[in-house]
User: Which sequence fits this backbone?
């Protein structure tokens, strides 16, 4: 990593602390959602990079349930020191050491399970059942993205790998991801960011294919980079995304956002697709950078059919803890200005937000509330959406 990047990383606490003053959402970049910022968009010169087109994009939600009890998660964060605490010290599996909230570390957590991962995940997670805080609370976020090229050929990508070894292995098997990884049918793994619920299930993917090409944001900390190695990754192709725009394949672009995120995580990568004759589709893991920053960056940087936003999928980070404040309504209004034809939200978007979207008349694709998904208000575990 460059000196300039390390300098920006040292500003993490300053940036995140400023947001923390305004509460959880503010810590995640509330300015990105403000209407005043949105109003400036038409004045921005557009570069409109041509990145090709695809025929369609299908998303299968492997798991959007990052955790099963909000109160337990927030209690663990609070008793460990708050939103700015290093996630590896909190004491969650797989890095729990049995010493209590905020007293763990990467080294302590990985030591007893290092020889077990990725091939004996059941035993590794059994240890965490005894040592971790609320060991049954972790779930995870992960989805399968199937891209159809203009010539009809299809390509599969895995976005994120969840959290709990047990839950994610079950979820992978439920959707056939285990077989797809083993056969090499999934061409690459893309990690949106380093957060526990998107990344810590990495050994589950390695169990089935430890050489799969893997993309990561260049903001990963030393613990995250070490975890990739300790999880059994033996591939020659760890692809560090260090540019704002990285072409994955024609019609599929990775967009890098350098933003400070709670629990000492830095940066997130989202995906953009140009669907022929339809327009732009955006897919995010958590969208910590904010709806406005994601949409405005795509609007400024990319060329897409009909100059139109067509669809969106993933976590939109508005009410992840199912709370609501009147100021959040501005976020809902901001999304409407882009006139998406299909909205496939879930995860940290929050059920309350999904209901607000529906009330606002947005074309939200509802789910089936299966596999421990708590509501049909948005796309749940096992649900699919096609753009």
Assistant:
């Amino acid at each position: 990593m460059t000196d300039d990047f390390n300098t920006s990383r040292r500003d993490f606490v300053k940036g995140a602390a400023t947001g923390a003053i305004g509460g959880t959402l503010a810590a995640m970049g509330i300015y990105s959602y403000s209407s005043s910022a949105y109003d400036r968009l038409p004045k921005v010169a557009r570069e409109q990079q041509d990145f090709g087109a695809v025929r369609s994009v299908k998303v299968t939600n492997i798991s959007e349930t990052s955790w099963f009890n909000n109160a337990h998660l927030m209690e663990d964060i609070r008793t460990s020191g708050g939103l700015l605490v290093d996630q590896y010290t909190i004491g969650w599996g797989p890095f729990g050491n049995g010493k209590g909230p905020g007293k763990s570390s990467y080294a302590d957590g990985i030591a007893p399970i290092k020889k077990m991962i990725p091939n004996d995940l059941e035993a590794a997670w059994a240890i965490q059942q005894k040592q971790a805080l609320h060991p049954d609370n972790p779930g995870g976020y992960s989805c399968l993205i199937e891209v159809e090229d203009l010539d009809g050929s299809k390509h599969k990508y895995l976005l994120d790998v969840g959290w709990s070894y047990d839950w994610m292995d079950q979820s992978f098997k439920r959707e056939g991801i285990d077989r797809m990884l083993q056969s090499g049918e999934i061409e690459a793994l893309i990690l949106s960011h380093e957060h526990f619920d998107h990344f810590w299930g990495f050994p589950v993917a390695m169990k089935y294919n430890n050489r799969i090409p893997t993309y990561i944001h260049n903001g990963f900390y030393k613990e995250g980079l070490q975890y990739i190695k300790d999880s059994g990754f033996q591939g020659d192709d760890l692809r560090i995304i260090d540019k704002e725009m990285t072409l994955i394949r024609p019609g599929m672009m990775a967009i890098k956002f350098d933003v400070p995120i709670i629990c000492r995580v830095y940066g997130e990568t989202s995906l953009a697709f140009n669907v022929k004759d339809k327009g732009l589709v955006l897919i995010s893991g958590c969208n910590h950078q904010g709806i406005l920053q994601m949409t405005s960056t795509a609007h400024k940087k990319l060329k897409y059919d009909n100059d139109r936003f067509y669809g969106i999928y993933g976590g939109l980070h508005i009410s992840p803890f199912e709370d609501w404040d009147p100021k959040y309504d501005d976020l809902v209004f901001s999304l409407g200005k882009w006139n998406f034809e299909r909205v496939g939200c879930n995860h940290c978007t929050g059920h309350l937000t999904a209901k607000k979207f529906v009330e606002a008349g947005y074309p939200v694709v509802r789910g089936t509330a299966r596999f421990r998904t708590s509501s049909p208000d948005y796309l749940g575990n096992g649900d699919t959406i096609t753009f």
Remarks:
- Residues 1-35 have pLDDT under 50 and may be disordered.
- The first helix runs from residue 3 to 10.
- Residues 33-67+138-386 form a domain with the Metallo-beta-lactamase; Chain A fold (CATH 3.60.15.10).
- The chain has two domains: 33-67+138-386, 68-137.
